[in-house]
Amino acid sequence: xxxxxxxxxxxxxxxxxxxxxxxxxxxxxxxxxxxxxxxxxxxxxxxxxxxxxxxxxxxxxxxxxxxxxxxxxxxxxxxxxxxxxxxxxxxxxxxxxxxxxxxxxxxxxxxxxxxxxxxxxxxxxxxxxxxxxxxxxxxxxxxxxxxxxxxxxxxxxxxxxxxxxxxxxxxxxxxxxxxxxxxxxxxxxxxxxxxxxxxxxxxxxxx
Length: 207
Prior knowledge:
The protein has helices at residues 3-12, 59-67, 70-73, 93-106, 122-131, 150-157, 168-181, 193-206, and strands spanning 42-46, 76-81, 113-117, 134-136, 161-163.
């Protein structure tokens, strides 16, 4: 857990709550993407089960936004894990929205979106992290303001660019790196997952 969340639980409970280091996979060492072709699309992985609190319903609209831009459509590949993180018979509106997005992804067969299926076993998950140029975590900041994602830590341990919305613990975790590469006047652009993917794409292609 995070220091902030531990403090909240300590305040609400009868006992103090401490923080332990996250047990990152011992094989999660820094790597470059396994496909070294210079003309290949930028591979952005969206891993983990699909849930409303992760804004998984935004993946299909994000793909549509990229697809509608001819300058980007052939330069990005979204590798998406598509198993739902809720019961298949759930009637919650938020779950139905995520399920609709997963159906849209499953029905597409183009060069922009790769359906990874899921759940992924440990070896497959690790392989997808290493294959990626970056990980996209477009999570709901309201739900993750004081929470961490294991995907963030696994991605950092593997030396990957991890893209998160502004605000919350995860953004603070990567803020020092962001400040080294972007000036203060551009921080508002970190709000949009689509803008984040585009900025990452342009930065990688300049190198």
